[in-house]
Amino acid sequence: AYNIHVNGVLHCRVRYSQLLGLHEQLRKEYGANVVPAFPPKKIFTLTPAEVEQRREQLEKYMQAVRQDPTLGGSETFNSFLRKAQQETQQIPTEEVVLEVLLSNGQKVKVTILTSDQTEDVLEAVASKLDLPDDLVGYFSLFLVRQTKDGALSFVRKLQEFELPYVSVTSLHNSEFRIILRKSYWDSSYDDDVMEHRVGLNLLYAQTVSDIEHGWILVNKEQHRQLKSLQEKVSKKEFIRLAQTLKYYGYLKFDPCITDFPEKGCHVVVSAGNNELNFQVRLPNEQIKEGSFKVTRMRCWRVTSSVPMSNGPSGSSPGKSEVKLELAFEYLMSKDRLQWVTITSPQAIMLSICLQSMVDELMVKKSGGSIRKMFRRRVNGALRRSDSQQAVKSPPLLDSPDASREPMAKLSSKLTSVSLRGISHSSSANDVGANDFHGNYAFEGIGDEDL
Q1: Are 390 and 69 in contact (CB under 8 A)?
Q2: Nearest-angstrom CA–CA distance, 205 and 159
Q3: Which residues, at least 6 apart from 165, have a Cβ–Cβ distance to it below 8 Å?
Q4: Which of 19, 72, 116, 153 is the one with CA 20 to 30 A from 180?
Q5: Is the same domain home to 244 and 256?
Q6: What is the C-alpha to C-alpha distance for residues 30 and 397, in angstroms, rounded to an integer?
Q7: 55: alpha, beta or left, given left = phi > 0 and alpha = psi -120 to 50?
Q8: Based on the domain organization, do 221 and 277 belong to the same domain?
Q9: How many C-alpha atoms does 43 have within 13 Å on its Cβ side?
């Protein structure tokens, strides 16, 4: 069996025959010209070299399918991953009570099936809270890690290819929880949410929580004003004031490492307002702050590397930590592109944030509405509107042979790639092009911007 990692986490184990079955089903539904080529069957037992070659081919196949907006967002592909996740974790389909946190620490208990997908669980939580249907799409479920001292760390946004109950229980750690938060970036959408009592309460609770965590910056005078509005229970005015504060609507990530402006700098990254904000501690202990606009990122990718084992002195096999990196190519000035790398266990979550910012920007550009961005049920099946592409988080396949030494790089990092290569490449020589997220919201810089 092959281990499939999705979003940096072991998602499921599948056999070659199961993947072949998925391929045949996709071909039947979408046609041979849409679905990528599948590694051929072999009559004889594979040699170790052939086993590794097949693993690489299957990894490329799964990434190609996931990154195709039609195939990657299809119910066929997502239900295959959900079913495989449930089978791998050996969790039977039964009714269970799942606890979902709100930002204020309140627990919402919903009765669901273990086989319920993310959208079903989100709707169950919304129904329990009495949140109207047309506001459900403004919120998402996030997997977080909450330590005993109350610190909150975002692991990822739960996706359509997973079962929330299975995802959280298979981690066997009570620090991992599911939390409900708003899932849009543009604070002008707050107005839609505040129209309804429950939406207002959820937004208010999240804003208070983000201020308490120190994610939104508040000076003494602003703190006094906010406290006064809180005492008067003026929730809308409280949110309106908070909207003017620094880092309102941003997600703050755990401290990590960046190679900008030089290698090995410690950085705190926040995502919001269509940018990644960096607070960098330079080697001379000086703190510098700067922002990278998502519209000037030409492309980005997540790579993962496994430390090489150094014989007996190295850590025991299986214990080595996978190192995740997010790298993006940024237009620093009119003719100068530069790669910036963030090394963080939250690299996947950062990539998902970038993708959802781009999705939101593209919907706005085309004059669409955020309400239409979200998937709607059609005859019981989930459909994705054309305006929102699948969040491209390529799965990584481990070698089926556990005795093999870890590879130095699971995905090799390229120094540059043409945008045409990202979106239209069908060339086998264009190695790794599938790993890149081409940014369709990318904008060049004119003389007037310099």
Answers
A1: yes
A2: 24
A3: 91, 96, 98, 112, 114, 116, 121
A4: 72
A5: no
A6: 24
A7: alpha
A8: no
A9: 0
Kindly give the pairing relationship between strand 275-281 and strand 265-272.
antiparallel
Helices (H), 130-219: 133-136, 164-169, 190-194, 197-212
Least confident interval from 178-187, 292-301, 398-407: 398-407
- Cα–Cα distances (Å) from 144 to 109, 157, 219, 434, in that order, read 17, 9, 28, 28
The pTM of the full predicted model, rounded to 2 decimals, is: 0.81
CA 10 to chain centroid, in Å, comes to 15
Per-residue pLDDT at 380 exceeds 80: no
- The count of domains in the chain is 4
Q: Determine the number of helices (DSSP H) and then strands (DSSP E) in the chain.
A: 14, 19
Asked whether the predicted pLDDT for residue 285 surpasses 90, the reply is no
CA neighbor of 248 nearest in space, from 301, 282, 203, 312 = 203
Domain boundary among the residues 355, 375, 395 is at 375
Give me the mean pLDDT over the 47-63 stretch. 89
Domain of 218, CATH number, reads 1.20.80.60
Strand bridging mode 265-272 / 251-252: antiparallel
Helix, strand, or coil (residue 450)? coil
Residues facing residue 182 across a β-bridge: 139
- Residue with tokens 């970038």, as numbered in its chain: 354
Asked if 255 and 403 count as a contact pair (C-beta separation under 8 A), the reply is no
Predicted local distance difference test score (pLDDT) of residue 45: 86
pLDDT reported for residue 435:
57
Separation of alpha carbons 232 and 238, rounded Å: 10
Residue with tokens 């481990």: 398
Distance CA 197, CA 187 (A): 18
Q: Is residue 409 included in any domain, yes or no?
A: no
CA–CA separation, 4 and 6 (whole Å): 6
Alpha-carbon distance 199 to 185, whole Å?
16
Task: Say which residue, 46 or 378, is predicted with more confidence.
Answer: 46
Question: Is 290 part of any domain?
Answer: yes
Of the chain, the percentage scoring pLDDT greater than 70 comes to: 79
CA 201 to CA 361: how far, in whole Å? Answer: 27
DSSP string, 299-316: EEEEEEE-PPP-GGGSPP
Which range of residues forms the domain containing residue 118?
Answer: 91-183
Burial of 244 (0-12, 13-18, 19+ CB in 10 A): exposed
